[in-house]
From TrEMBL:
Pathway: Nucleoside biosynthesis; alpha-ribazole biosynthesis; alpha-ribazole from 5,6-dimethylbenzimidazole: step 1/2. It comes from Limimaricola hongkongensis DSM 17492. The gene is cobT. This is Nicotinate-nucleotide--dimethylbenzimidazole phosphoribosyltransferase. GO terms for molecular function: nicotinate-nucleotide-dimethylbenzimidazole phosphoribosyltransferase activity. Catalyzes the synthesis of alpha-ribazole-5'-phosphate from nicotinate mononucleotide (NAMN) and 5,6-dimethylbenzimidazole (DMB).
Length: 337
């Protein structure tokens, strides 16, 4: 599908015209759920998950056939400030590892039957250091969001958006602080594992970046100012999924910061998304609260690369297998009470 925007005005137009779920399909799914051979409500959140998925796919008895995991990679100028435990070169090295099948997400995607696509975004051209200046120009922001949009397979029936980018927890923290307020420390965590001095440098970079753009509230402008490309691309991908009515499972802190931009830009923009997990990164739990999303899993992950979102495909698969495969009371000849 062609990309329906080539500038910020076009992006805003897309955000103001988001499709909703198929309510009739969701109602049919709800009524099927009520007839399945189990005490009402006994499958807990699996029941609402199946109904939610049915509504977005427009069918009362859906199956999950073509999940896609899209990983976006980019580099960050702010890394020069010593805000990560790893050097920027690791971003490109890990892209090679994804392509060779050697990363955690490769194993998880294979285990949960998802197709993995990897999208490296101008790795040789890091975004500018957001402490000093805007991370991206308008054209760069639009290009990164368009890359995210284009990465989504319109035939997919589930999207997990993931990322790889040394330094990107710093950028994600700054975005969260700009949009949600509070103190830099509230949103700044250890990322790949920085020590106390690194954590202090990181919180300082976040605070300075926010001071530089003081008063900027527009979510897309916050994203342009604070970067990075993979965060913008994830936002573009989640938006494209909405256009195709493809349900989304969100991953960790950085993915949720990308989602937050959409959430603040258009109320309800994340209705087609669930939170895959709550990770260990400082600020992720708070961010999920602000998104109004309860995580499906809580495993102490802080890897990124879509890992927690892919694990949650297993939960969704379980929910849909029960919903679409179970017998009704009438079919099984079981007394319904
Ligand atoms: O997803 C998360 O919550 C998460 C938490 C901590 C680190 N990461 C990953 O680690 C990298 C960013 O960490 P850092 O310390 O370089 O900012 C990036 O590649 C992320 O995928 C991811
Ligand atoms: C090795 C490594 C793998 C990653 N995967 C996602 N972020 C990462 C960061 C590092 C450092």
């Amino acid at each position: 599908m062609t990309i329906p925007f080539d500038d910020l005005a076009g992006l805003r137009a897309v955000l103001s015209d988001l499709p909703g779920p198929d309510r009739a399909a969701a109602e049919k799914a709800q009524s099927r759920n009520a007839q399945l051979t189990k005490p009402a409500g006994s499958l807990g959140r699996l029941e609402e998950l199946a109904t939610w998925y049915a509504g977005w796919r427009g069918t009362a008895r859906p199956v999950l056939a073509r999940p896609q995991v899209a990983i976006f990679a980019a580099n960050h100028g702010v890394v020069a400030r010593g805000v990560s435990a790893f050097p920027a070169a690791v971003t490109a090295q890990m892209v090679g590892n994804f392509e060779a099948g050697g990363a955690a997400v490769n194993q998880l995607a294979q285990t949960f039957g998802a197709r993995l696509t990897v999208h490296a975004l101008d790795l040789d051209r890091p975004t500018r250091d957001f402490v000093d200046t805007a991370a991206m120009s308008e054209a760069e922001l639009v290009a990164a969001m368009a890359a995210g949009w284009a990465a989504v397979d319109p035939e997919a029936d589930l999207l997990v958006a993931g990322e790889m980018g040394i330094g990107n927890t710093c950028s994600a923290s700054a975005i969260a602080l700009a949009l949600e307020g509070g103190e830099a420390q509230d949103w700044t965590g250890r990322g790949t594992g920085v020590d106390d001095a690194g954590l202090a440098r990181k919180a300082e970079a976040v605070a300075q970046g926010i001071a530089r753009i003081e008063g900027t509230r527009d979510p897309l402008e916050v994203l342009r100012q604070l970067g990075g490309r993979e965060i913008a691309a994830m936002a573009g991908a989640v938006l494209a999924a909405r256009r195709h009515r493809i349900p989304v499972i969100l991953d960790g802190f950085i993915c949720c910061a990308a989602a937050l931009v959409l959430h603040r830009a258009a109320p309800g923009a994340l209705d087609h998304a669930v939170a895959g997990h709550q990770g260990a990164e400082g600020g992720h739990a708070r961010l999920l609260e602000r998104l109004g999303k309860a995580p499906l899993l809580s495993l102490g992950l802080r890897l990124g690369e879509g890992s927690g979102g892919v694990l949650a495909i297993g939960v969704l698969r379980g929910a849909l297998a029960c919903h679409s495969g179970m017998a009704t009371f009438a079919e099984a000849g079981v007394s319904d009470g």
